[in-house]
Amino acid sequence: MTDTEATRKNAKHLLYLMVNEELLRAGDGLDAESLSHVLERHGVSAAEQQPAMDYACEQGWLQKGENGQLQITETGFALD
Fold it and tell me: Do 76 and 20 meet the contact criterion of CB atoms below 8 Å apart?
């Protein structure tokens, strides 16, 4: 698996966890620290987290919200 494929996989996993474990909906968000803990519990290393978050933002799946939260967009929610 290439780095890009791994990053895409981790970004999709991130969305899955936000929707199905954290029960977030479009417009809801998590602060970076909470999101990091969720990802670590599910085997996404610290080194893999930022590229996954950046990729999800670039795809329009996440957006930066108030107080640095990462919010799920309508597009990101529909993807999951």
Answer: no
Structure tokens at 16: 């899955």
34 secondary structure, DSSP code: H
Domains in the chain: ranges and CATH = 3-79 (1.10.10.10)
Position 70 pLDDT exceeds 80: yes
Phi, psi of 59 (to 5 degrees): -80, -10
Instruction: Give the rounded distance of the alpha carbon of 63 from its chain centre.
Output: 10
List residues bridging with 3 in a β-sheet: none
Whether pTM exceeds 0.85: yes
